[in-house]
Write a structure and sequence with these properties.
The structure holds two protein chains of two kinds. In chain A, about 0% of the residues lie in helices and about 45% in strands. Chain A contains no helices and ten strands. In chain A, β4 (about 30-35) and β5 form a beta hairpin. In chain B, β9 and β10 (about 100-105) form a beta hairpin. Classes of the chains: A mainly beta, B mainly beta.
Chain lengths: ~110, ~110
């Protein structure tokens, strides 16, 4: 596709359930980022993938959060045993190179944990 | 600690009027500053990006300024339109590293007819 695609656009889940969020970056973009945006807050960095390098997971808030990127393209963010404080919009972005760092964002997945 | 502060938090203006949004940062070292527009329910979209040597950049009715000495930036919107209603996010890059971006909380702009 022409842009970064995220699915689902909305996800409602019960506390304690696991959820998977998907990001399909722009074709050819080697860098992929996950961010979390809570209501009225700035974007919070979660995890970064660059090519075949080990991902930078330093932004993940707890070990309930994990992400993988298969084949250097599609990425999945998994949240296990969801908590109400996990409710937020999860944004994915991709870019061509780290040096330029011009990121193109998807529309996000709005997660609501009841 | 690297921080980006934006003001005002929210702003309401009438269609056709101009407005200016402010961004102050304490990110160091500094690489570049960009403004993003985020429509409700959408991801942020880049409006402008400025490096240390640039003090102004325009994108249509949007004009961004940068004063690297005082670490301040502004986004001026001319002849506002209803479609300008969105959140405007200031983002500062400290270096070319992978986690270098520091995001402001944004200014929520509402343009009324």
């Amino acid at each position: 596709g022409a842009g970064v695609s995220q699915s689902p656009s909305n996800k409602v889940t019960e506390k304690g359930k696991d959820v998977e969020l998907r990001c399909d970056p722009i074709s050819g973009h080697t860098a992929l980022y996950w961010y979390r945006q809570s209501l009225g807050q700035g974007l919070e960095f979660l995890i970064y993938f660059q090519g075949n390098s080990a991902p930078d997971k330093s932004g993940l808030p707890s070990d309930r959060f994990s992400a993988e990127r298969t084949g250097g393209s599609v990425s999945t963010l998994t949240i296990q045993r969801t908590q109400q404080e996990d409710s937020a919009v999860y944004l994915c972005a991709s870019s061509t190179t780290v040096a330029k760092n011009i990121q193109y964002f998807g529309a996000g997945t709005r997660l609501s944990v009841l | 600690k690297n921080q980006v502060e934006q003001s005002p938090q929210s702003l309401i203006i009438l269609e056709g009027k101009n407005c200016t949004l402010q961004c102050n940062y304490t990110v160091s070292p500094f690489s570049n500053l960009r403004w993003y527009k985020q429509d409700t329910g959408r991801g942020p979209v880049s409006l402008t990006i400025m490096t240390f040597s640039e003090n102004t950049k325009s994108n249509g009715r949007y004009t961004a300024t940068l004063d690297a000495d005082t670490k301040q930036s502004s986004l001026h919107i001319t002849a506002s339109q209803l479609s300008d209603s969105a959140s405007y996010i200031c983002v500062v890059s400290g270096d070319t590293g992978r986690r270098a971006l520091t995001f402001g909380s944004g200014t929520r702009l509402q343009v009324q007819p």
